[in-house]
Amino acid sequence: MPSVLLLYSSKGKECGNSSTSERLRKLLNHAxxxxxxxxxxxxxxxxxxxxxxxxxxFNCVIGIHAYRTxxxxxxxxxxxxxxxxxxxxxxxxxxxxxxxxxxxxxxxxRYLIAFTRSHFNLAMAQWPxxxxxxxxxxxxxxxxxxxxxSFKAHLQEKLGMQEQNLQNITIFLLVAGIRPIKDPLFLAxxxxxxxxxxxxxxxxxxGPEIDTEFSYKMKENLLRYTGVYYVDSIPQPKLxxxxxxxxxxxxxxxxxxxxxxxxxxxxxxxxxxxxxxxxNCEIVDHLKTGLLFxxxxxxxxxxxxxxxxxxxxxxxxxxxxxxxxxEHSLSKEMETYCNIVHTxxxxxx
Length: 349
Fold this sequence. Notes:
Layout: E1 3-8, H1 16-30, E2 34-39, H2 46-55, E3 60-64, H3 70-73, E4 80-83, H4 87-90, H5 99-108, E5 111-114, H6 117-126, E6 134-136, H7 151-159, E7 170-175, H8 188-197, E8 201-206, H9 212-222, E9 228-231, H10 236-245, E10 248-251, H11 260-268, E11 272-275, H12 278-283, E12 291-293, H13 296-308, H14 310-327, H15 330-345
Parallel strand pairs: 1-2, 1-3, 3-4, 4-5, 5-6, 7-8, 7-10, 8-9, 10-11, 11-12
Helix pairs in contact: 11-14
């Protein structure tokens, strides 16, 4: 059986690229394919990567993120595939210094995997010579909530909130690695004003501090608001339980690839209220599988509508669960990646 290296860049276990690589590792191992995850920081350059690949008898490489792994893959001694992660296509292709690296890596890849239709179309338009090698494969969803975890008790411990004040609160949970593209304070003014009128309303931001300087400024700015808080990241099983226990998941990102935590919330039966962008619109069907907003004022209106209508909430949850089961199948994802590995490694099924 073939052996594959999964190469990725991440600043924490809770980040999207990290969770994607770990899911794919388990998936490929389950299918009998040897799979090892390594971060780009584990290598000093292309020679270091090639020495590792040859010394450990790998057959191929899958890189997650066309720019971050592309720097190493350009000179890779083995055939490779690239998974578009989101910011590579949303942001980095517009950077004159990064685009040549992305293009060279993309043109050298045997396969290119896009999570969404919009990224699939963008990649085909940007690199037409690779049109036969671009595959659309949505991410699958795996959730494992830790049933013994109480998110309200966690907030009481981390924020010093009184227990009696936690019993009947409404928590809108924003999960994101803290960096500018996630725009975590986009809703802060509006929610803070709502909280002043209704003290049961809270917006809780949770996630690792990806951009240290930006995170510091965000936490400084949070001191101006009431009802809006930040707590550090927690292990994924606890996060999944937090998603199950909150009123709704909120996403306020300027851009997204395919937001894994939105899919996880849907799978867990938690309503989703997401900012309109290409990635979010791929997986959230407004008023069917979730709610979409453009402005903070529109978010407040939709959130109030959700709180006032059990019928709406039940319908959103039902349609979202059905959507995830139909469109984000673990077995289909496994089949796609197994076929890619067998093909590019020269080890037929």
